[in-house]
Structures
1.
Amino acid sequence: MLSEFSLIDRFFARRARITPRAVLGIGDDCALFAPSAGEMLAISTDMLVEGRHFLADVDPHALGHKALAVNLSDLAAMGAKPQAFTLALALPQAREEWLAAFSEGMFEIAERFDCELVGGDTTGGPLNICITVFGEVPPQLALRRDAAQPGDDIWVSGTLGDARAGLGVLRQEWSVDAGDAATFCRALERPEPRVALGLALRGHARSALDISDGLAGDLLHILERSRVNATVDVDAVPRSAALRRLPSDLQRRCTLAGGDDYELCFTAPAAARAAIEAAGYSVAVPVTRIGTISALQNAAAEPAISWHDAAGMPLTLTLQGFDHFHAN
Amino acid sequence: MLSEFSLIDRFFARRARITPRAVLGIGDDCALFAPSAGEMLAISTDMLVEGRHFLADVDPHALGHKALAVNLSDLAAMGAKPQAFTLALALPQAREEWLAAFSEGMFEIAERFDCELVGGDTTGGPLNICITVFGEVPPQLALRRDAAQPGDDIWVSGTLGDARAGLGVLRQEWSVDAGDAATFCRALERPEPRVALGLALRGHARSALDISDGLAGDLLHILERSRVNATVDVDAVPRSAALRRLPSDLQRRCTLAGGDDYELCFTAPAAARAAIEAAGYSVAVPVTRIGTISALQNAAAEPAISWHDAAGMPLTLTLQGFDHFHAN
């Protein structure tokens, strides 16, 4: 059994391949850190709990990746550049093998995004991973949820639904061939935060968020904060080749209510279409137009999404986004 | 059962009596926030787990207080001024009564220290509270752990040991009269972060930390980071009148290895004695000299604490600070 202090020294010490940003990091009461001149800190915190955000037998390397990836995804959704993070970790026991794999998974993605671990806390307890991440963004370029305007196009990055399809495979809700299963499970366990795309969208997109709880629920957050409606073509929602091999009702369930996609959903004026396409191209991430923002019918109306298919036929969906106090 | 979003709206919305510091707070992917010119952010994170940091039947109002208090205590130990915090909360169930009391306890102390809740996360799961707190301090005035020098006095604020005595009462390790029990339990459940003292010590103290795991273990962190030794008079360690009514071996156990005190331990040159006394007086917090920092015997030596009693008789203590991977 390792003590807290030897654990931090062994598995969470400063890494040479990450730019040091804190003037004081792990080992004091606080880290000391400041954003660059003209930038603000973008701060987000996410807590991952066993049985709810990951299964008990998850590969610890993948878990280390995902714990930081979902936080970096929040920075991406803000158009912020990753700088640093803190890690608080409750562990039922300090198993060296598990910690070695977990910290390796976490630092691999931390190095890739040059994001320094500047502080943390470790304790015994049911497995719980809480990361707070810090990025930088000039405030006037931040991609907020409350900035969508009538007439904006609605875009999403990458493809949606694979992570939910992977969960279904692990839960044996459906079975697919080994190749598709690997595609889906990789999407679930190794989400790729769209940080470069978020940066490329600065000055072009108006509003953005990352899709963590399903497109239907998450897009509604933009609508509620911006006080607008949306119309979405469900057949335009981008899907992987693997997902297209599932029955079409499952495709819709996975793409619209799936969760764990960590793709960006964003809005931009129609005049910015070429710039948005160029931004996606510049970072090698496909971007797809799926709908349009429109005005509320009156000031008291509840923002809503109107769904239709490729033929323009209205669809009634009763899908809900993932809510952490309900079963998925 | 409340959903995540209605829960945040109802219990964790922005409070009127706290100065808004984030240009964007709860409800977007990230909070946007920057320190004042010339200041750095001091950042600390603490995770509290049921059964380890608090008992299952703890008053939720006290728990809300303590969860933020222990984080503010880290800012105090840095000489930093509280600005903002994020809260991540895993709850086995969303009980309104519990959440109302917890959030009230948390916001009472947040208002007192004018510290804004700028973001967070809620999820189902075994009860777990993870707060990341942000303060401001000019970097050259920060009270670091690595700045103690030979000849420095060692000081502590307030009195030590009451919180550990309270834990002993709750665990029925010992019994005391009702008045002392109330004193001890209040110390355990309602620690008061020494924020004002930390600010008053800027420019006078050299090194500091907060005593969360027991004086013996925590002072050693200053010694290890500063590469120095310490000599401490155990009889000079300040104790409450209630603690002085316990047997003397228990007094020592509680004051030296107790944990959960959240008093400051700091070092300062002997020439600063009057300034330190004045700083304590200005914020109405007693400060007591308990020992002296000395040089290591050689560069390879392990830093250590020499304990003695009021008569100068050396004492051998085998106390250890609280380590979260060992039983206390």
2.
Amino acid sequence: MTPAAHGPVVAENKIIDGALLAERIKSDVAEQVRALEERGITPGLSVVLVGDDPASAVYVGSKERTCIELGMHGETIRQPATISQAELLAIVDRLNDDPSVHGILVQMPLPKHIDSDAVVRRIRPDKDVDGFHPVNVGKLLIGEKDGFAPCTPSGVLYMLQAYGVQTAGADCVIIGRSNIVGKPMASLMVQPGVDATVTVCHSRTRDLARHTRRADILIVAAGRAEMVTGDMIQPGAVVVDVGMNRIPDATKRSGTRLVGDVAFASAREVASMITPVPGGVGKMTIAMLMANTARAAAQLREVRS
Amino acid sequence: MTPAAHGPVVAENKIIDGALLAERIKSDVAEQVRALEERGITPGLSVVLVGDDPASAVYVGSKERTCIELGMHGETIRQPATISQAELLAIVDRLNDDPSVHGILVQMPLPKHIDSDAVVRRIRPDKDVDGFHPVNVGKLLIGEKDGFAPCTPSGVLYMLQAYGVQTAGADCVIIGRSNIVGKPMASLMVQPGVDATVTVCHSRTRDLARHTRRADILIVAAGRAEMVTGDMIQPGAVVVDVGMNRIPDATKRSGTRLVGDVAFASAREVASMITPVPGGVGKMTIAMLMANTARAAAQLREVRS
């Protein structure tokens, strides 16, 4: 899923509008789904939700609803936190073998007694629409196109491309080295065709501001509320904020407020474009998951038994 | 294979001695081989050589000889350049199923009519001692320890650790984004425990010297003779030269001379330590291949049929 088919978007008030782009992707996916229906295929995503973490339940509900909204099958398989490793693997095996299931996603985090790596490795790589199976991680880094890239980093790259950000030769600095965002983001940005010069910073980086101040594209996925301030940003840089942090705010009825890893007001003064929180990267993740699921359905061949 | 068991090495005349470290690794591997022999296991490496490229023949011969020197089985399967894709895959399948073969390596490059990616993907990941199968690339990036890392980058990391180079918090700049060196090198350097701040530069990077001059550790795998000169290096930096280039030299009987990607004389003036070419990184690659093969033999369980 690339923004190539659409014209470039212009940022109003420097804001990169994740909601706008997510709607555009979803509308493209709905069209793919209609074309697949004509071939007798209804793309299907099965999400396995273990335990009763409220945040996970919200994410999963939203994934299921979006599937249905786009004409796909969406199912959530709910299991108690007491499920055994073997029982969970058996569910994955059943979904692997079910030809009506094109995408499988096991919602993280899993209870401590479960080996999450083993669960992710058990998912058929061609149904791994989260892009976390090692073989998909490897294909992403090598530059092989037939795997799945994780949804948040591919959403970020889509945003940059949709807004016409020049990536070739740009200094791209990424804060964070998680397997979910930082590392796959670096893998995407360094590929031929994207061609950024990529730096990955993290908790052990010395003098972080020295790196952020030379970034043409700054992508922040550190998980620390408002850690990047305007003075750390090069004038004219494009700033992408992957953070989602709840901080206390007495003026809100809930007593909290959602903020990113970037101090938005001071950063917008300096940046040429910036993603807000909420309404930025967060909106892209589910949209890219839908795009991956539709592609899985289009690509899937026989089911290995 | 890590240098932890040995004391730190001190660089004489600033030289990081690849030959010395390679001998040390090979001696450690020979000891592992003796221990495996006691369990009735002789580690075996099978190298498939297609066509008659003279450089490939030299590399492959050296791999086979080193195996035998260390008490392992080493075999080279020579095939004509006219071999079909199906025939080559059938050879890989046979080696996959052969319990006496613990490591499989298909020497690159392959003739143009062969799909190299498909051949690499066909090798069982737990026999892929070159570390090029996507699942091993993915495990390396994620930080899962049960895969195989490519031999040249793991040799470079071994060198840095053997010479006591501080990697945590260091600015590590890598020139080159190949799947064989640059990308896996970056994957290794960014992992927790190594903890470098990693930048990957390449042919599209603007103002390369601006990056190299801030590097505490500079790793050059660009494939261009003597492209990094002393004025591009930060005083006191550690310089690792992965390049191997033949350039004309009328003073030599062969008419050529082997040089790296770093202009050695001017770089040594500035660097605190540097790998020479030859005698540096090149020596490490085969040693790490032997280490991977011994580990494959120690880990390998039943053969899937």
